[in-house]
Design brief:
The complex is a heterodimer.
Chain A (H helix, E strand, L loop, with lengths): L1 H35 L5 H5 L12 H32 L4 H14 L3 H15 L6 H25 L3 H9 L4 H29 L3 H4 L32 H11 L5 H35 L3
Helix pairs in contact in A: 1-11, 3-6, 3-8, 4-6, 5-6, 6-8, 7-8, 8-11, 10-11
Chain B lengths: L6 E12 L2 E12 L3 E5 L6 H7 L10 E9 L2 E2 L7 H7 E4 L10 H11 L5 H14 L3 H4 L12 H14 L4 E5 L7 H14 L4 E5 L3 H7 L2 E6 L2 E7 H6 L4 H7 L5
Parallel strand pairs in B: 3-8, 3-9, 6-7, 7-8
Antiparallel strand pairs in B: 1-2, 1-4, 4-5, 9-10
The chains are: A mainly alpha, B alpha/beta.
Family (chain A): Belongs to the binding-protein-dependent transport system permease family. CysTW subfamily.
Pfam family, one (chain A): BPD_transp_1
InterPro entries (chain A): MetI-like, MetI-like_sf, Phosphate_PstA
Chain lengths: ~300, ~260
């Protein structure tokens, strides 16, 4: 009787804790969306920001965020997949691979402002890239790569060893086994991790302040030549992103409608991150079902 | 009659060490073509380890050292020039736990072929049907080849795994306790299938199930603590064993 009572109490406490967490999240979401959504319109999403007058939008910042995201994922996805495969399938257990793993763990716990300052020194100053999308993308790669690599490694490692044996016993080489059996099986996990990583990158501000810069010069959306200075695709132009924009108008914005712009931008950012999170689940499950033929 | 059969594999003085621990203490035995050979013995006696030396699966474990020779078709598979990938196409293996890939039944069966470069849909279709028929599961799955192999029962999964091995057309099939995770009915079906298969393949079977060894094998080898104690016709081993340890084991006095 006593153990039954305690079971009930423990269950109640756990429900309470979970409920508190959900309430906090729900409160944040509702608060941000309630304040921000009324300010979001097509005009707001597409027009450039204004420094001194009201009525500015976040069009360029939104484009910058996506472009930066794509560039940084283009750099970090291949590297993280390669590194993850190495760590999970090929690395022997010795001091060197332990060192690599420890370094990755330390790298992943670096505060993002430190990564930003490192990126500023290395990419913007030493490499001469200045405040540019490319500097920002490289800094985000430093920020995101450790987590992506660990995700790839963990996804591959979660595939049972019997699958590797099955592949090898069928006369596949080790590389064929990894490429044609282990990676396809781990793909849903890998893709989920990548999309969550994308969400993290999308909302990152501190690492970008000193690398991608805090200014969003006007873009000429009719000229897509990446070498033209006002071209949206030019990777060497400074590019304030949405998250940086929110930080900036809250710290030094002097436009009359700064608080509305900030609230609207926050709502857009939150919605984008939510889309990434739900998308990750949906895409991961979808690929898993498609590959395994289960319904 | 049985003695006229050709030897396909002969192992000579095979020692295997895990680090310093000697798990196989000089095994010398040969396997004849188109026979089922059963390896029996208590857990940890080295029978599975020995089975895995025959397609060099032990190479995958670091710290393992192997000495001695294993001749397959008169070639030493432990010679430095051996291509283990090619070897494992000749010597297929089925494991204790059914381990189908989480893909469709069709894809499971043709995985080896497709990776070997076969693209012709007709050849693949034919291989799927032949292999699944040989594995005695064609009638059960022919209408759901595109469904996941994981949706099948354990016994059916194991037969798909066997079909997957057959599709590569090996000469020898190694089975490591293939029925120990299955119910008696599925086990019986797999035993019957193995009896059918031995006309075309050489089968080497590790089993904990003494009845299974006596029902389907032609010859039986008894392992104990890394040694091959006795190896003879299955009838002789079960009815008239020479060694005391063998008799004790098969009569259930230990193990």
């Amino acid at each position: 009787m006593d153990s039954k009572k305690w079971d009930k109490i423990a269950t109640g406490v756990l429900y309470f804790i979970a409920g508190v967490m959900i309430l906090i999240l729900a409160f944040l979401l509702i608060f941000i969306l309630w304040n921000g959504l009324p300010h979001v319109s097509w005009h707001f999403l597409t027009s450039p920001a204004k420094s001194f007058q009201s009525g500015g939008g976040i069009g360029i910042q939104l484009f910058n965020s996506f472009y930066l995201l794509i560039l940084s994922m283009l750099i970090s996805i291949p590297i993280s997949i390669g590194a993850g495969i190495y760590l999970s399938e090929y690395a022997k257990k010795n001091w060197l691979t332990n060192l690599v793993r420890t370094s990755i763990d330390i790298l992943s716990s670096l505060p993002s402002i430190v990564v930003g300052l490192f990126g500023f020194l290395v990419f913007s100053i030493s490499a001469g890239l200045g405040f540019s999308i490319l500097s920002g993308a490289l800094a985000l790669t430093v920020f995101n790569l450790p987590l992506l690599t660990r995700n790839v490694e963990e996804s591959l490692r979660s595939i049972s060893g019997s699958q590797r044996e099955a592949g090898l016993a069928l006369g596949l080489s080790k590389w064929e086994t990894v490429l044609k059996i282990i990676i396809p099986e781990a793909l849903p996990g890998i893709i989920t991790g990548m999309i969550l990583g994308a969400g993290r990158v999308f909302g990152e501000a501190a690492a970008l302040i000193y690398t991608a810069g805090q200014s969003a010069p006007p873009l000429d959306f009719t000229n897509w030549n990446p070498f033209y200075i006002a071209s949206p695709l030019n990777p060497l132009r400074p590019a304030e992103t949405l998250a940086v924009h929110i930080w900036k108008i809250n710290s030094e914005g002097i436009m009359p409608d700064a608080s509305q712009v900030s609230a609207g931008a926050s709502a857009v950012l939150i919605i984008a991150v939510l889309i990434f999170n739900f998308g990750a689940r949906y895409v991961g499950n979808h690929i898993y079902r498609k590959m395994t033929g289960t319904k | 009659m049985a003695d006229e059969r050709k030897e396909i594999i002969s192992a000579t003085d095979v020692h295997l060490f895990y680090g310093r621990n000697e798990a196989l203490k000089g095994i010398t035995m040969d396997f004849r073509e188109n026979e089922i050979t059963a390896l029996i013995g208590p857990s940890g006696c080295g029978k599975s380890t020995f089975l895995r030396t025959l397609n060099r699966m032990n190479d995958l474990i670091p710290s393992v050292t192997i000495t001695g020779t294993v001749m397959l078709h008169d070639k030493n598979i432990y010679a430095p020039s051996t291509d283990t990938v090619a070897l494992r196409k000749e010597v297929g293996m089925v494991f204790q736990q059914p381990n189908p890939f989480p893909f469709s039944i069709y894809d499971n069966v043709i995985y080896g072929l497709r990776l070997a470069g076969v693209r012709d849909r007709r050849i693949l279709d034919e291989a799927v049907e032949t292999s699944l028929r040989q594995a005695a599961i064609w009638d059960t799955v022919k209408d759901k080849l595109s469904e996941s192999a994981l949706s099948l029962s354990g016994g059916q999964q194991q037969r798909v795994c066997i079909a997957r091995v057959l599709a590569v057309k090996p000469d020898v099939i190694l089975l490591d306790e293939p029925t120990s995770a299955l119910d008696p009915i599925s086990s019986g079906q797999i035993e019957n299938m193995l009896l059918e298969l031995k006309d075309e393949y050489t089968i080497i079977l590790v089993t904990h199930n003494m009845q299974q060894a006596s029902r389907i094998s032609d010859r039986t080898a008894f392992f104990l603590q890394g040694d091959l104690i006795e190896y003879a016709d299955t009838r002789t081993i079960f009815l008239n064993p020479k060694e005391k340890e063998t008799e004790d084991y098969i009569s259930g006095r230990f193990g």
